[in-house]
Amino acid sequence: MATNVAASTQSRLLDARDTEAVLHDIRGYLTIIRGECHGVVRDGKANGRTIDRLRTIDDQVARIDAAVAVMRDALRDRVHVGHVRLPVDVRRSVARAIARIEGVARSRGVSVRMVAAAVPMTILGSGDLIDRALDNVLLNAVRGAGHGGDVDVALDVTQDSVTICIANDVRPAPSARTEGWGVGLQIVRSIVQEHRGELTFTVDGTRVTVWIALPGAICVPGERSH
Hints:
The protein folds into two domains: about 1-85, Helix Hairpins; about 85-225, Histidine kinase-like ATPase, C-terminal domain (Heat Shock Protein 90, 2-Layer Sandwich), CATH 3.30.565.10. The protein contains six helices and eight strands, in the order ααβααββαββαβββ. A five-stranded mixed β-sheet has the order 2-4-5-7-6. The protein has a three-stranded antiparallel β-sheet with strand order 1-3-8. The chain is of the alpha+beta class. Helix content is about 55%, strand content about 20%.
């Protein structure tokens, strides 16, 4: 009996994680849509009517995002996982985030390249929050790279932390490390801090690099290096 209950619980958790992964992607795409709307408004090249329409779109997308968040929370409550931290495959999360911004990058002629060390990169955390942080950082990097630019993403494990490095060249050279980020910076910083991680910016000429260190790297049974 105990074995059957454990197997049933495991099955429910796996189904919940699959569903939650889809909800992560939906929220990621919504973040990108909102980011593009904000970007057009900040550029100052749109007329008043267009800006009003973009703000209407942004408002409606925000409502959809809130509804998806409610669905996610209801799912967690149903399977009794609540806010328990679950294993998050950081390599997979980054790859999915890159896939989500592929359309935006392609429309701008930007190439996004990922290099990951051949070691397990799993932490205990919130996959949803990590996805939102990655979407914000990658979208900002793609915008900053300009047409025909490159965004380089590197992942590694240092001691007990998974480190994500996202770098791009910005022309003209940025005058401030967080130039152009808007509220995205606060979102990313809050998420990283919630995971007891570190968020660092470096600027070397036109090269802007964002470092995200997420502690708590674990080895999941059956996990293999890729």
